[in-house]
Design a protein that fits this description.
Helices cover 49% and strands 13% of the residues. It is α/β, with parallel strands linked by helices and 894 residues long. The two termini are 39 Å apart.
Length: 894
């Protein structure tokens, strides 16, 4: 019977299903839950469509959940096209369309909230699709997937769709322990074979080649890299014996050149990943400046017609502010940027035109790799490192696979291509290892929050709540792993003792010597990376802001010593240069290369003699002034620390590099004739000891169960009056309906009446502080616009401190700090400001503006539903209306 049902479903498709698809459909036909783990573009969606088809066939309901509103909108449109508008609904924070339909698309958070609220819409639910279920390892939102899987009624069949993960069977086993028979269907094979390339010196070389029957990293790339690093290559004598100035490393190829190369080799369409919004926009601007056109006349006409139709509902004034005409010109030429700074309609238009094969190159941030259906022939990765907000980190193998998963269009391309541009900061061996790794374990991020705790108290007995927490994938994984981890530690300890015996040296303590050497090497690598990235930028910033008369110390090199700035210049490339005088009366030019770290001013000298009222910097420095400044420099009594640059965080932890090197060289083991052999065993021992340290940390983390943390959360809630024993207090019912990272703080704000006297625009300003997050490493500090809003916010910040103090006593970290960066903007937009005025704000993009408004609107609606005071409910509703207008309202439309 099952095969007949599958065959009936398959008959609707113009292609034959792959074996893994058939396997999943057969399991679903037997009413088993299924987990399908397969690469991007392999056809997992067919399994979800089968669940939809079965629900409609049986007269039951199916919910299709996604992690992103944009993806929910896309799936809604796809399913409407398949089954008609009457059969399909949509529920997101922005939209509620036909919610009683038999097929409803929603974000996963909406389903979680419906379960806790015991919504009537859950009646007759038979199937739930959890798209992109690997999101459960997201540190902020991942718990939602586990909450849904744990709390859904047992007669609901779950279809989980995941990217390729190496522990899919374990995840499916966990679902089976909770919900009964569950099939793990795993497909490792990509639907289109991927070829990986490395672009170096304008040569596109295969990253891997065959050698003696094995696939190995391309040795030609290693040779080219070694040649690039060889000083003789960078600085070779000319025929007459003179050495030219040292050539710096060539930068990566400019983006338009890479596009032309891809076009010439028939590798378009392509997605070009750049981990910077400004970088994506700059790439488009560069292609336009250089006159690149990738489309023919017919394609340009179709692009213009479609884009004009998609944007027709926006006002002409808003379109002008959004840069519509420049965007359209680039789009017609065949390329576009795609990132969160753009308004949704621009992003959606780019997606649809790219899928139609009309746009040939999209410069995108990594957010494009999450869910949106945009396959390409080629994926270009400009950098394998990205700034996380605190430091630059190399992407994980899973992230690399997520990006390259876009390469290769099924049914169109014989091969997909991934192109990695040369990475000066990473050795090729590390890049090849990253590209060839195939282990991406799915790790739970499940942790009890205040909202989760109140909902558990609200819906279950204490015993049931603890059982549900102990049923999480996090706890399942922990309990299963502890025994295995202990065995690994015991085995490693045996090997470690053997390695330490073999590395023993009769000259001295080799373990001590190795620790010094290892610390020195790690610090050297860390400083080198820092100098090439943040250090260079910080030095450039310092030199750009240097003022005449400031004294700096050059720590090394020919110009070592103090200098006084007498002027500033910029190179043709915009690099800052300082004009300075040394103690030797020399007039010198200094650039970022003269400083191994960002310098800091250590004094000031007047550039004019006492009594001379001419206070402007001289256009030239005469010998008399040089003499006077040199004498003044020589007379300066500089403290010893002026000669030492400010230590970096790495140095504070690891010690001064020069002192560490000296200790290594003076250690008796350094002169041992068996140094190399001892070092080999020491390296093995160090790796194994580090592995054991990590294993012991994991054991400690797993033995503290989630239920213990749950009880610490309950203690905090009891102290603030939300629970009593294992019963909800009146305030607890309100908290159970607030879903936010600052849920307890928001509940306190509502319960204490700090919002009661605010007008709608003031409410928008204050509520925005709970959802706004600065994008960069530094917090965007704004101000509250009115006396009343400042008074309310002051009460909120004081309460936040009280909550955090209480959390620290319980070793919890659940409530994030508020941020004021969007408050004044929310206030002015709510009061009717136009878009041009709003976007005049520095560093505010239209996409960020819309997203922040939407998040504020979502929380305002939650507060409106939870508030008891009628006047406050009315004011919150008006705040929603004030924010949800113009481009913001249009961005929520389907």
């Amino acid at each position: 019977m099952t095969s007949e049902v599958v065959a009936s479903f398959a008959a609707q498709y113009p292609f034959e299903f792959d074996p893994f698809q058939v396997e999943a459909l057969e399991a679903l036909g037997r009413m088993e839950s299924v987990l399908v783990a397969a690469p991007t573009g392999s056809g997992k969606t067919v399994v979800a469509e089968f669940a939809v088809w079965l629900a409609l066939r049986e007269g039951r309901k199916v919910f299709y959940t996604t992690p992103l509103k944009a993806l929910s909108n896309q799936k809604f449109n796809d399913l409407v096209a398949l089954h008609g508008a009457a059969s399909v609904g949509l529920l997101t924070g922005d939209n509620s369309i036909n919610p009683s339909a038999p097929v409803v698309v929603m974000t996963t958070e909406v389903l979680r909230n419906m379960i806790y609220e015991r919504s009537d819409l859950l009646e007759d639910l038979r199937y739930v699709v959890l798209d992109e279920v690997h999101y459960l390892q997201d540190p902020y939102r991942g718990a939602v997937w586990e909450e849904v899987i744990i709390h859904l009624p047992l007669d609901v069949v779950i279809v989980s769709l995941s990217a390729t993960v190496s522990n899919a069977e374990e995840f499916a086993d966990w679902i089976q322990t909770l919900r009964g028979p569950t099939a793990a269907v795993i497909e490792d094979r990509r639907p289109v074979v991927l070829e990986q390339h490395y672009l170096i010196d304008d040569q596109l070389l295969p990253m891997f080649v065959a050698s003696d029957g094995e696939v190995v990293p391309n040795p030609e790339i290693r040779r080219l890299e070694a040649r690039r690093e060889n000083p003789k290559f960078r600085r070779s004598p000319t025929r007459n014996g003179h050495r030219p100035a040292q050539r710096p490393h060539r930068p990566r190829p400019n983006r338009s050149s890479v596009v032309e190369l891809l076009s010439g080799q028939n590798l378009l369409p392509a997605i070009y990943f750049i981990f910077s919004r400004k970088g994506c926009d700059a790439a488009v601007a560069q292609c336009m400046r250089e006159g690149l056109v990738l489309t023919d006349a017919s394609e340009r006409a179709r692009i213009r017609e479609f884009a004009e139709m998609r944007c027709s509902r926006l006002e002409d004034e808003d379109l002008a502010v959004l840069g519509y005409h420049e965007w359209l010109e680039a789009l017609a030429a065949g390329f576009a940027a795609h990132h969160a700074g753009h308004v949704p309609v621009f992003k959606e238009t780019v997606e649809e035109l790219f899928q139609a094969g009309l746009v040939k190159v999209v410069f995108a941030t990594e957010t494009l790799s999450l869910g949106i259906n945009m396959p390409a022939r080629t994926v270009v990765i400009e950098s394998l490192t990205k700034f996380t907000g605190e430091r630059h980190e190399v992407m994980t193998p899973g992230e690399f696979t997520q990006l390259t998963g876009r390469a290769g269009r099924r049914g169109i391309d014989a091969l997909g291509h991934a192109v990695v541009l040369r990475q000066p900061e990473l050795p090729f061996a590390q890049i090849a290892g990253l590209a060839s790794t195939r282990t991406y374990p799915l790790v739970s991020s499940f942790q009890p929050s205040y909202n989760m705790a109140t909902n558990l108290v609200r819906n279950y007995s204490q015993e049931e709540a603890e059982h549900l927490l102990n049923s999480s994938f996090a706890q399942y994984h922990a309990d299963k792993d502890v025994v295995v981890l202990e065995r690994l530690i015991e085995r490693n300890d045996v090997y470690l003792a053997s390695y330490r015996e073999k590395m023993a040296c009769d000259r001295g303590d080799f373990e001590e010597y190795w620790r010094l050497r290892d610390r020195s090497a790690r610090l050297e690598r860390s400083l080198s990376r820092w100098q090439q990235t943040e250090g260079r930028e910080q030095t450039r910033s310092v030199l750009s802001s240097a003022r005449p008369g400031q004294v700096y110390v050059v720590p090394a090199g020919k110009m070592r010593g103090p200098i006084v700035v007498v002027g500033a210049q910029r190179s043709k490339r915009g690099e800052p240069r300082l004009l300075a005088v040394t103690r030797e009366r020399k007039l010198v030019r200094l650039t970022t290369r003269d400083f191994s770290r960002p310098p800091r001013p250590v004094g000031n000298l007047p550039l004019v003699p006492p009594g001379d009222l001419r206070q402007k910097a001289p256009s030239s420095v005469d010998p008399e002034m040089r003499k006077r400044l040199a004498s003044a420099l020589a007379a300066l009594d500089l403290p010893a620390e002026a000669w030492d640059p400010e230590p970096l965080p790495e140095e504070r932890e690891g010690g001064d590099l020069s002192r560490l090197r000296a200790k290594v060289l003076s250690h008796p083991c350094h002169r041992c004739p068996d140094l190399e052999l001892h070092s080999q065993w020491a390296a093995r021992a160090a790796r194994l000891a580090s592995e054991n340290d990590q294993l012991r940390k994991r054991v400690r983390g797993r033995t503290e169960t989630l239920s213990r943390k749950f009880h610490r959360v309950l203690e905090v809630l009891e102290e603030f009056g939300y629970v009593s024993g294992f019963e909800l207090a009146p305030k607890g019912w309100m908290l159970a309906r607030l879903y936010n990272e600052s849920d307890l703080l928001i509940a306190e704000t509502l319960a204490n009446g700090w919002l009661d006297d605010l007008k709608p625009a003031e409410l928008a300003a204050v509520v925005s502080t709970f959802v706004f997050e600065s994008r960069g490493p530094f917090e965007v500090v704004g101000s509250l616009p009115t006396t009343n809003s400042r008074k309310a916010y002051a009460s909120i910040t004081r309460q936040h401190e009280r909550i955090r103090r209480r959390e620290r006593r319980s070793t919890l970290e659940l409530t994030r700090a508020t941020e004021t960066g969007f408050a004044d903007i929310a206030y002015r937009w709510c009061r009717g400001a136009d878009l041009e005025e709003i976007l005049a704000e520095e560093d505010l993009t239209a996409g960020d503006f819309i997203r922040n408004c939407k998040q504020t609107i979502d929380l305002l609606r939650q507060l409106r539903d939870a508030a008891e005071e009628p006047n406050l409910r009315e004011a919150l509703g008006k705040a929603v209306d004030g924010l949800n207008r113009g481009v913001v309202a249009y961005a929520g439309a389907i």
